[in-house]
Amino acid sequence: MAPNPKTSTISTGQNGFSRTAEWRDTRLDVLRALALLAIFINHVPGQIFENLTTKNFGFSDSAEAFVLISGVSIGLAYGGRFTPGNRLASSLKAARRAFTLYMAHMITTFMTLALFICGAWLFARPGLLCEINILPVLTNLKEGIPALLLLGHQIGYNNILPMYGALLLLVPFILLLEAYSPLLLLLVSGSIWFLAGAYQIAPHNMLLDGYWFLNPLSWQFLFVIGIVCMMHVRRGGSLPRHPALLALSVAYILLSFVWVVFKLWTIGNMLAASGLPLVLVGFDKTFLSLPRLLHVLALAYLVVNIPAISHWLRRSSDHPLTILGRHSLNVFAAGTILAMVGQVILYITNNDHVVGPLYVVLGILIQLAYASHLERKRLLVRDGVKAVGQAKPLAVPVAIRDVRSFNRERG
Known about the structure:
By secondary structure, the protein is mainly α. Helix content is 68%, strand content 0%. It has one domain. The longest helix is centred in the last third of the chain and has 56 residues, at 355-410. It comes from Rhizobium tubonense.
Protein backbone atom coordinates (compact mmCIF):
# COMPACT_ATOMS: atom_id res chain seq x y z
CA MET A 1 0.00 0.00 0.00
CA ALA A 2 2.96 2.24 0.48
CA PRO A 3 4.49 4.04 -2.48
CA ASN A 4 6.94 1.83 -4.32
CA PRO A 5 10.02 3.89 -5.18
CA LYS A 6 11.83 3.04 -8.38
CA THR A 7 15.12 3.05 -6.55
CA SER A 8 16.03 2.27 -3.01
CA THR A 9 19.03 1.79 -0.79
CA ILE A 10 21.48 -1.06 -1.07
CA SER A 11 23.59 -2.86 1.47
CA THR A 12 27.01 -1.30 1.82
CA GLY A 13 27.27 0.23 5.25
CA GLN A 14 27.16 -0.92 8.84
CA ASN A 15 23.38 -1.19 8.81
CA GLY A 16 23.11 -2.45 5.27
CA PHE A 17 22.20 0.92 3.82
CA SER A 18 23.86 3.53 1.65
CA ARG A 19 22.84 6.91 0.36
CA THR A 20 22.47 6.09 -3.31
CA ALA A 21 21.47 3.13 -5.37
CA GLU A 22 20.57 2.18 -8.89
CA TRP A 23 18.18 -0.65 -8.11
CA ARG A 24 15.52 -1.50 -5.58
CA ASP A 25 16.34 -2.79 -2.14
CA THR A 26 14.01 -5.77 -2.20
CA ARG A 27 14.06 -6.19 1.58
CA LEU A 28 11.27 -3.65 1.96
CA ASP A 29 9.17 -5.45 -0.63
CA VAL A 30 9.72 -8.82 1.05
CA LEU A 31 8.90 -7.44 4.50
CA ARG A 32 5.80 -5.76 3.13
CA ALA A 33 4.75 -9.02 1.46
CA LEU A 34 5.19 -10.99 4.68
CA ALA A 35 3.10 -8.39 6.55
CA LEU A 36 0.36 -8.57 3.90
CA LEU A 37 0.21 -12.36 4.06
CA ALA A 38 0.06 -12.27 7.86
CA ILE A 39 -2.76 -9.73 7.71
CA PHE A 40 -4.66 -12.00 5.31
CA ILE A 41 -4.20 -15.02 7.56
CA ASN A 42 -5.32 -13.07 10.64
CA HIS A 43 -8.36 -11.78 8.74
CA VAL A 44 -9.61 -15.35 8.30
CA PRO A 45 -9.97 -16.19 12.00
CA GLY A 46 -10.66 -19.64 13.32
CA GLN A 47 -8.14 -21.66 11.27
CA ILE A 48 -4.86 -23.15 12.44
CA PHE A 49 -2.53 -20.86 10.48
CA GLU A 50 -3.78 -17.93 12.54
CA ASN A 51 -1.95 -19.45 15.52
CA LEU A 52 1.37 -19.15 13.69
CA THR A 53 1.37 -15.41 13.01
CA THR A 54 3.45 -12.94 15.02
CA LYS A 55 0.56 -11.72 17.18
CA ASN A 56 0.76 -15.01 19.08
CA PHE A 57 4.42 -14.53 20.02
CA GLY A 58 4.73 -10.88 20.96
CA PHE A 59 2.96 -7.62 21.75
CA SER A 60 2.81 -6.26 18.19
CA ASP A 61 1.49 -7.82 15.00
CA SER A 62 1.65 -7.34 11.25
CA ALA A 63 -0.17 -3.99 11.35
CA GLU A 64 2.65 -2.34 13.30
CA ALA A 65 5.23 -3.84 10.96
CA PHE A 66 3.32 -2.60 7.95
CA VAL A 67 3.06 0.99 9.22
CA LEU A 68 6.76 1.13 10.11
CA ILE A 69 7.69 -0.23 6.66
CA SER A 70 5.36 2.33 5.10
CA GLY A 71 7.13 5.15 6.92
CA VAL A 72 10.47 3.95 5.58
CA SER A 73 8.97 3.71 2.08
CA ILE A 74 7.62 7.25 2.31
CA GLY A 75 11.10 8.47 3.23
CA LEU A 76 12.39 6.77 0.08
CA ALA A 77 9.60 7.81 -2.26
CA TYR A 78 9.08 11.41 -1.16
CA GLY A 79 12.03 12.39 1.01
CA GLY A 80 14.46 13.18 -1.80
CA ARG A 81 11.83 15.05 -3.80
CA PHE A 82 10.39 17.18 -1.00
CA THR A 83 12.61 20.16 -1.70
CA PRO A 84 11.80 23.86 -2.25
CA GLY A 85 10.07 24.15 -5.59
CA ASN A 86 8.85 20.55 -5.55
CA ARG A 87 6.91 20.51 -2.29
CA LEU A 88 3.53 21.33 -3.80
CA ALA A 89 3.86 18.59 -6.41
CA SER A 90 4.93 16.06 -3.77
CA SER A 91 2.05 17.11 -1.52
CA LEU A 92 -0.46 16.67 -4.33
CA LYS A 93 1.00 13.26 -5.12
CA ALA A 94 0.56 12.18 -1.50
CA ALA A 95 -3.02 13.52 -1.52
CA ARG A 96 -3.80 11.60 -4.73
CA ARG A 97 -2.39 8.46 -3.15
CA ALA A 98 -4.60 9.01 -0.10
CA PHE A 99 -7.63 9.34 -2.37
CA THR A 100 -6.64 6.10 -4.11
CA LEU A 101 -6.58 4.40 -0.70
CA TYR A 102 -10.01 5.85 0.07
CA MET A 103 -11.42 4.41 -3.16
CA ALA A 104 -9.83 1.03 -2.44
CA HIS A 105 -11.37 1.12 1.04
CA MET A 106 -14.80 1.86 -0.41
CA ILE A 107 -14.48 -1.06 -2.83
CA THR A 108 -13.48 -3.54 -0.13
CA THR A 109 -16.11 -2.20 2.28
CA PHE A 110 -19.06 -2.52 -0.09
CA MET A 111 -17.77 -5.83 -1.42
CA THR A 112 -17.73 -7.05 2.19
CA LEU A 113 -21.32 -5.92 2.69
CA ALA A 114 -22.39 -7.66 -0.51
CA LEU A 115 -20.61 -10.89 0.40
CA PHE A 116 -22.13 -11.13 3.86
CA ILE A 117 -25.62 -10.20 2.67
CA CYS A 118 -25.46 -12.76 -0.16
CA GLY A 119 -24.11 -15.40 2.21
CA ALA A 120 -26.91 -14.77 4.68
CA TRP A 121 -29.55 -14.94 1.94
CA LEU A 122 -28.25 -17.84 -0.17
CA PHE A 123 -27.43 -20.12 2.77
CA ALA A 124 -30.20 -18.97 5.13
CA ARG A 125 -27.70 -17.86 7.77
CA PRO A 126 -29.00 -14.50 9.03
CA GLY A 127 -26.40 -14.59 11.81
CA LEU A 128 -23.85 -13.46 9.22
CA LEU A 129 -25.47 -10.02 9.29
CA CYS A 130 -24.55 -9.69 12.96
CA GLU A 131 -20.85 -10.19 12.25
CA ILE A 132 -18.03 -7.63 11.87
CA ASN A 133 -20.06 -4.49 12.57
CA ILE A 134 -22.44 -4.87 9.63
CA LEU A 135 -25.81 -4.78 11.42
CA PRO A 136 -25.70 -1.07 12.44
CA VAL A 137 -25.49 -0.16 8.75
CA LEU A 138 -28.29 -2.47 7.60
CA THR A 139 -30.68 -1.39 10.34
CA ASN A 140 -30.18 2.30 9.53
CA LEU A 141 -29.27 2.70 5.87
CA LYS A 142 -30.18 6.38 5.83
CA GLU A 143 -27.36 7.15 8.25
CA GLY A 144 -25.30 3.99 7.69
CA ILE A 145 -24.29 4.60 4.06
CA PRO A 146 -23.15 8.21 4.67
CA ALA A 147 -21.28 6.98 7.74
CA LEU A 148 -19.41 4.46 5.59
CA LEU A 149 -18.64 7.07 2.94
CA LEU A 150 -17.39 9.54 5.56
CA LEU A 151 -15.35 6.87 7.36
CA GLY A 152 -17.49 7.35 10.44
CA HIS A 153 -18.30 3.65 10.51
CA GLN A 154 -15.83 0.95 9.56
CA ILE A 155 -16.62 -2.69 8.91
CA GLY A 156 -14.53 -5.11 10.94
CA TYR A 157 -11.25 -6.14 9.27
CA ASN A 158 -11.64 -3.14 6.94
CA ASN A 159 -9.97 -0.45 9.01
CA ILE A 160 -6.30 -0.29 7.98
CA LEU A 161 -6.72 1.81 4.83
CA PRO A 162 -8.54 4.73 6.52
CA MET A 163 -5.75 5.03 9.07
CA TYR A 164 -3.04 4.83 6.43
CA GLY A 165 -4.85 7.30 4.18
CA ALA A 166 -4.96 9.79 7.06
CA LEU A 167 -1.21 9.31 7.58
CA LEU A 168 -0.56 10.05 3.91
CA LEU A 169 -2.43 13.34 4.22
CA LEU A 170 0.01 14.25 7.01
CA VAL A 171 3.09 13.51 4.88
CA PRO A 172 3.69 17.12 3.64
CA PHE A 173 3.60 18.46 7.21
CA ILE A 174 5.79 15.63 8.47
CA LEU A 175 8.42 16.14 5.77
CA LEU A 176 8.36 19.91 6.17
CA LEU A 177 9.03 19.65 9.90
CA GLU A 178 11.59 16.90 9.32
CA ALA A 179 13.53 19.15 6.95
CA TYR A 180 13.62 21.80 9.67
CA SER A 181 14.53 19.52 12.58
CA PRO A 182 14.15 15.72 12.77
CA LEU A 183 14.45 15.88 16.55
CA LEU A 184 11.67 18.44 16.80
CA LEU A 185 9.51 16.26 14.56
CA LEU A 186 10.02 13.28 16.85
CA LEU A 187 9.22 15.38 19.92
CA VAL A 188 6.03 16.77 18.37
CA SER A 189 4.96 13.38 17.02
CA GLY A 190 5.70 11.62 20.32
CA SER A 191 3.78 14.25 22.26
CA ILE A 192 0.74 13.83 20.01
CA TRP A 193 0.98 10.04 20.44
CA PHE A 194 1.13 10.34 24.24
CA LEU A 195 -1.68 12.90 24.54
CA ALA A 196 -3.93 10.94 22.17
CA GLY A 197 -3.43 7.81 24.24
CA ALA A 198 -3.60 9.42 27.66
CA TYR A 199 -6.75 11.46 26.93
CA GLN A 200 -8.41 9.13 24.39
CA ILE A 201 -8.27 11.60 21.50
CA ALA A 202 -9.27 9.93 18.24
CA PRO A 203 -11.76 10.22 15.34
CA HIS A 204 -15.18 9.21 16.63
CA ASN A 205 -17.56 6.71 15.10
CA MET A 206 -20.90 7.95 13.78
CA LEU A 207 -23.24 4.99 14.29
CA LEU A 208 -21.82 3.51 17.49
CA ASP A 209 -19.98 4.82 20.51
CA GLY A 210 -16.22 4.67 20.40
CA TYR A 211 -13.38 5.56 18.09
CA TRP A 212 -11.69 4.39 14.93
CA PHE A 213 -10.18 0.98 15.57
CA LEU A 214 -6.75 2.29 14.49
CA ASN A 215 -6.30 5.88 15.66
CA PRO A 216 -4.14 7.82 13.16
CA LEU A 217 -3.12 10.31 15.89
CA SER A 218 -1.47 7.43 17.71
CA TRP A 219 -0.14 5.44 14.78
CA GLN A 220 1.49 8.49 13.20
CA PHE A 221 4.33 8.20 15.75
CA LEU A 222 5.45 4.82 14.39
CA PHE A 223 5.03 6.16 10.85
CA VAL A 224 7.17 9.19 11.67
CA ILE A 225 9.89 7.05 13.25
CA GLY A 226 10.19 5.14 9.97
CA ILE A 227 10.41 8.37 7.97
CA VAL A 228 13.01 9.95 10.26
CA CYS A 229 15.22 6.85 10.23
CA MET A 230 15.12 6.65 6.44
CA MET A 231 15.82 10.36 6.00
CA HIS A 232 18.76 10.07 8.39
CA VAL A 233 20.20 7.28 6.23
CA ARG A 234 19.54 9.25 3.04
CA ARG A 235 21.71 12.05 4.41
CA GLY A 236 24.58 9.65 4.94
CA GLY A 237 23.94 8.68 8.53
CA SER A 238 23.73 5.18 9.92
CA LEU A 239 21.49 3.59 12.49
CA PRO A 240 23.25 2.92 15.80
CA ARG A 241 24.62 -0.56 16.23
CA HIS A 242 25.75 -1.37 19.75
CA PRO A 243 25.93 -4.66 21.67
CA ALA A 244 23.89 -3.14 24.51
CA LEU A 245 21.08 -2.15 22.12
CA LEU A 246 21.13 -5.59 20.52
CA ALA A 247 20.95 -7.23 23.95
CA LEU A 248 18.09 -4.98 25.05
CA SER A 249 16.16 -5.70 21.85
CA VAL A 250 16.59 -9.46 22.24
CA ALA A 251 15.67 -9.29 25.93
CA TYR A 252 12.51 -7.29 25.25
CA ILE A 253 11.43 -9.62 22.44
CA LEU A 254 11.95 -12.63 24.73
CA LEU A 255 10.01 -10.92 27.52
CA SER A 256 7.18 -10.21 25.11
CA PHE A 257 7.23 -13.82 23.90
CA VAL A 258 7.01 -15.22 27.45
CA TRP A 259 4.34 -12.68 28.39
CA VAL A 260 2.06 -13.54 25.47
CA VAL A 261 2.64 -17.30 25.35
CA PHE A 262 2.14 -17.77 29.10
CA LYS A 263 -0.62 -15.12 29.25
CA LEU A 264 0.86 -12.93 31.98
CA TRP A 265 -1.79 -10.28 31.47
CA THR A 266 -2.47 -10.03 35.20
CA ILE A 267 0.88 -8.24 35.53
CA GLY A 268 -0.36 -5.73 33.00
CA ASN A 269 -3.52 -5.25 35.02
CA MET A 270 -1.42 -4.58 38.11
CA LEU A 271 0.60 -1.97 36.23
CA ALA A 272 -2.61 -0.39 34.98
CA ALA A 273 -3.94 -0.26 38.55
CA SER A 274 -0.85 1.71 39.58
CA GLY A 275 -2.32 4.83 38.00
CA LEU A 276 0.12 5.09 35.11
CA PRO A 277 -1.43 6.07 31.76
CA LEU A 278 -2.61 3.02 29.83
CA VAL A 279 -0.76 4.25 26.76
CA LEU A 280 2.45 3.50 28.68
CA VAL A 281 1.57 0.22 30.39
CA GLY A 282 -1.38 -1.16 28.42
CA PHE A 283 -1.55 -3.26 25.27
CA ASP A 284 -4.23 -1.34 23.41
CA LYS A 285 -4.03 -1.46 19.63
CA THR A 286 -6.27 1.52 18.94
CA PHE A 287 -3.92 3.93 20.71
CA LEU A 288 -0.73 1.93 20.00
CA SER A 289 0.37 1.45 23.60
CA LEU A 290 4.08 1.65 24.41
CA PRO A 291 4.68 -2.12 24.79
CA ARG A 292 3.42 -2.69 21.24
CA LEU A 293 5.46 0.21 19.89
CA LEU A 294 8.67 -0.94 21.56
CA HIS A 295 8.16 -4.51 20.38
CA VAL A 296 7.97 -3.66 16.68
CA LEU A 297 10.94 -1.30 17.01
CA ALA A 298 12.98 -4.02 18.71
CA LEU A 299 12.12 -6.46 15.93
CA ALA A 300 13.05 -3.89 13.28
CA TYR A 301 16.36 -3.20 15.04
CA LEU A 302 17.29 -6.88 14.88
CA VAL A 303 16.22 -7.17 11.24
CA VAL A 304 18.49 -4.26 10.30
CA ASN A 305 21.47 -5.25 12.42
CA ILE A 306 21.66 -9.05 12.12
CA PRO A 307 23.34 -9.78 8.77
CA ALA A 308 21.80 -13.25 8.38
CA ILE A 309 18.25 -11.86 8.61
CA SER A 310 19.05 -8.94 6.34
CA HIS A 311 20.64 -11.26 3.79
CA TRP A 312 17.69 -13.66 3.81
CA LEU A 313 15.27 -10.79 3.16
CA ARG A 314 17.19 -9.58 0.13
CA ARG A 315 15.50 -11.61 -2.58
CA SER A 316 15.81 -11.24 -6.34
CA SER A 317 13.55 -8.76 -8.11
CA ASP A 318 11.53 -11.59 -9.66
CA HIS A 319 11.03 -13.51 -6.40
CA PRO A 320 7.31 -14.11 -5.63
CA LEU A 321 7.53 -12.25 -2.30
CA THR A 322 9.30 -9.30 -3.92
CA ILE A 323 6.64 -9.09 -6.59
CA LEU A 324 3.82 -9.39 -4.06
CA GLY A 325 5.25 -6.57 -1.92
CA ARG A 326 5.79 -4.38 -4.99
CA HIS A 327 2.05 -4.44 -5.75
CA SER A 328 0.97 -4.03 -2.16
CA LEU A 329 -2.22 -1.97 -2.54
CA ASN A 330 -3.78 -4.18 -5.22
CA VAL A 331 -2.78 -7.32 -3.34
CA PHE A 332 -4.09 -5.94 -0.05
CA ALA A 333 -7.47 -5.12 -1.61
CA ALA A 334 -7.66 -8.57 -3.21
CA GLY A 335 -6.54 -10.20 0.05
CA THR A 336 -9.21 -8.33 2.01
CA ILE A 337 -11.95 -9.51 -0.33
CA LEU A 338 -10.59 -13.07 -0.24
CA ALA A 339 -10.51 -12.91 3.56
CA MET A 340 -14.14 -11.79 3.67
CA VAL A 341 -15.10 -14.68 1.39
CA GLY A 342 -13.20 -16.95 3.76
CA GLN A 343 -15.08 -15.61 6.77
CA VAL A 344 -18.40 -16.32 5.07
CA ILE A 345 -17.29 -19.85 4.12
CA LEU A 346 -16.05 -20.62 7.63
CA TYR A 347 -19.28 -19.29 9.15
CA ILE A 348 -21.36 -21.47 6.86
CA THR A 349 -19.20 -24.55 7.51
CA ASN A 350 -19.07 -23.89 11.26
CA ASN A 351 -15.30 -23.25 11.26
CA ASP A 352 -14.47 -26.59 9.71
CA HIS A 353 -10.90 -27.53 10.64
CA VAL A 354 -10.11 -28.72 7.12
CA VAL A 355 -11.88 -26.08 5.04
CA GLY A 356 -10.23 -23.17 6.85
CA PRO A 357 -6.56 -24.11 6.30
CA LEU A 358 -7.23 -25.21 2.72
CA TYR A 359 -8.92 -21.92 1.97
CA VAL A 360 -6.03 -19.90 3.44
CA VAL A 361 -3.51 -21.79 1.30
CA LEU A 362 -5.69 -21.23 -1.77
CA GLY A 363 -6.05 -17.53 -0.91
CA ILE A 364 -2.28 -17.09 -0.64
CA LEU A 365 -1.75 -18.82 -3.99
CA ILE A 366 -4.37 -16.58 -5.59
CA GLN A 367 -2.65 -13.47 -4.25
CA LEU A 368 0.73 -14.65 -5.53
CA ALA A 369 -0.79 -15.35 -8.95
CA TYR A 370 -2.52 -11.96 -8.99
CA ALA A 371 0.73 -10.20 -8.09
CA SER A 372 2.51 -12.09 -10.87
CA HIS A 373 -0.18 -10.98 -13.32
CA LEU A 374 0.24 -7.35 -12.23
CA GLU A 375 4.00 -7.64 -12.59
CA ARG A 376 3.71 -8.94 -16.15
CA LYS A 377 1.48 -6.00 -17.01
CA ARG A 378 3.95 -3.59 -15.42
CA LEU A 379 6.85 -5.02 -17.39
CA LEU A 380 4.87 -4.86 -20.64
CA VAL A 381 4.09 -1.19 -20.02
CA ARG A 382 7.71 -0.48 -19.08
CA ASP A 383 9.06 -2.22 -22.16
CA GLY A 384 6.53 -0.41 -24.32
CA VAL A 385 7.59 2.95 -22.92
CA LYS A 386 11.25 2.06 -23.50
CA ALA A 387 10.50 1.10 -27.10
CA VAL A 388 8.72 4.40 -27.69
CA GLY A 389 11.56 6.30 -26.03
CA GLN A 390 14.12 4.60 -28.24
CA ALA A 391 12.10 5.33 -31.36
CA LYS A 392 11.73 9.05 -30.70
CA PRO A 393 15.34 10.03 -31.44
CA LEU A 394 15.06 8.35 -34.85
CA ALA A 395 11.85 10.16 -35.70
CA VAL A 396 13.41 13.65 -35.67
CA PRO A 397 16.15 13.04 -38.27
CA VAL A 398 13.65 11.28 -40.54
CA ALA A 399 11.29 14.23 -40.29
CA ILE A 400 14.14 16.64 -41.05
CA ARG A 401 15.18 14.63 -44.11
CA ASP A 402 11.58 14.62 -45.35
CA VAL A 403 11.36 18.43 -45.00
CA ARG A 404 14.69 18.90 -46.80
CA SER A 405 13.59 16.63 -49.65
CA PHE A 406 10.32 18.53 -49.95
CA ASN A 407 12.16 21.86 -50.14
CA ARG A 408 14.60 20.56 -52.78
CA GLU A 409 11.70 19.31 -54.90
CA ARG A 410 10.11 22.73 -54.71
CA GLY A 411 13.42 24.24 -55.86
